[in-house]
Specification:
Elements: H1 3-15, H2 19-39, H3 52-87, H4 93-96, H5 100-120, H6 130-157, H7 160-183, E1 202-205, E2 210-215, H8 217-226, E3 229-233, E4 240-241, E5 246-252, H9 259-263, E6 266-269, H10 278-293, H11 300-319, E7 325-329, E8 335-340, H12 344-359, H13 363-379, H14 385-402, H15 406-413
Parallel strand pairs: 3-8
Antiparallel strand pairs: 1-5, 2-4, 2-6, 3-5, 7-8
């Protein structure tokens, strides 16, 4: 199995809502067998002994309760899907499917169900699994506790501001640990790489097409070293690639690597993932803000709250020193892999363009967006400021077109970290 196939399998496993509950189902059966074996030693105290009718009634009630609770959790999941796709962003669902607490709740319910059901078959008039019945009661207690935690979690965390905070932190983590740490190192070759032989000797094309979800830079570098060539990845992580399009150019090579060897280190899928794509987190944040600014929702305060997370994300990006291209070398410092990257201007445009276009009619958004941009001007390195000034000029032009009255224009042009109610005052 190639690396790309393993990556896709891992993505499926992370997003699956049935694999962990299935493991809980199997574990419940195994625990029931263990409890029956321990019961045969007859070492349990008298307080843990039950009559056959009591044990059968308790286990039967637990089996029915677990089925009902599973249905309840599934119903909550359907409501979450409806709310997320209707008022937040469909892109957020890919992150919600990975919630570990939800999978733990489902696994506990299925495990308790299979444990109790497996014990039912062993109950006879003269043989009762006393330890198993007690353990089943304890499992029900744990299940109910997890259910309460689950309800509390999703009652509070389904608010747009809570989701924006979660997604923003995920994006910053991926940026810092992924792109900035793995690809953001200084080029080992000592500068930008320029092909010496002109045109590439070979092109590697996508077989099935799809969105570039991730690639393995270490193994691509090793592959290029073995074939004494330079691999140039022509697509960004997150780009859609049609079938047959060029994804890698091969410069040099004795001989050039097989195309399947190269594509086996690049994962394609139906949609973007966050593993190597911090811009996907920013995309989700902007989607939530734009949805809040739509005429159907008309909630600029939510968009302002999302802008808080976008501002924090932009400060992290602005200090990361990103480039639009990275050159990775082998252990001797020879250039082997060239990959495309998103620079500061890409992230800034993604963060503010749509919010500016859809939110100019809101005084609150204009003021908060100006506060974000002026805060970036004051805090970021000089190399990032030209793009910020460009966005400030675009915001100023949008405000002038939208507000013809001088008083309203002045109001909309005043920076405010809260949107309305906290304008900067001279010291």
């Amino acid at each position: 199995m190639s690396w790309s196939s393993r990556f896709r399998l891992l993505q499926y496993t992370k997003a699956s809502l049935w694999i962990v509950p299935l493991l809980g189902l199997v574990l419940g059966v195994l625990l029931a067998e263990w409890a029956i074996t321990v019961d045969a030693t007859e070492w349990l105290p008298a307080g843990w002994q039950y009559s056959a009718s009591t044990a059968s009634g308790v286990l039967t009630a637990i089996v029915g309760a677990m089925i009902a609770l599973l249905g309840f959790v599934v119903t909550i999941g359907v409501l979450v899907v409806q709310q997320a796709t209707g008022t937040l962003s469909p892109r957020y669902m890919r992150l919600w499917y990975r919630d570990r607490l939800q999978k733990a709740v489902l696994a506990t319910f299925t495990g308790t169900f299979s444990f109790s059901f497996a014990l039912l078959r062993t109950i006879e008039s003269d043989s009762v699994p006393d330890l198993g019945v007690t353990m089943a009661g304890a499992a029900v207690s744990v299940s109910l506790l997890l259910l309460l935690v689950y309800l509390n979690r999703f009652t509070h965390n389904l608010r747009p501001v809570a989701i924006a905070d979660l997604v923003g932190r995920m994006g910053e983590t991926v940026l810092v640990r992924g792109e900035a740490a793995v690809l953001g190192a200084a080029p080992r070759a000592g500068g930008p790489w320029v092909p010496a032989g002109g045109a590439p000797v070979a092109h590697v094309r996508s077989e099935r097409g799809g969105v570039v979800q991730a690639f393995h830079p270490g193994r691509l570098t090793e592959l290029a070293e073995r074939h004494d060539c330079v691999l140039v990845v022509t697509r960004l992580v997150g780009d859609y690639v049609p079938p047959g399009a060029v994804v890698v150019e091969v410069h040099g090579g004795t001989p050039a690597p097989e195309p399947r060897q190269v594509t086996g280190l690049i994962a394609f899928g139906s949609e973007r993932t966050i593993e190597q794509d911090p811009a996907f987190a920013l995309r989700v944040l902007v989607d939530i803000a734009v949805r809040a600014l739509s005429p159907a929702v008309n909630d600029p305060t939510t968009a302002v709250q999302v802008l808080n997370q976008i501002e924090a994300f932009l400060h992290t990006v602005g200090r990361a020193g990103l480039r639009d291209r990275y050159v990775l070398g082998d252990r001797h410092g020879t250039p082997r892999l060239v990959v495309q990257g998103r620079d500061w201007e890409d992230y800034l445009q993604l963060a503010v363009t749509e919010i500016r276009e859809y939110g100019t009619s809101s005084v609150q958004i204009c003021r908060r967006l100006r506060s974000v941009l002026e805060g970036l001007l004051a805090a970021l390195p000089p190399g990032t400021l030209a793009a910020v000034r460009t966005e400030l000029a675009l915001l100023r032009d949008s405000v002038e077109r939208e507000y013809t009255d001088p008083a309203r224009r002045t109001l909309a042009s005043t920076p405010d970290p809260q949107g309305i109610g906290a304008r900067h005052r001279p010291r």
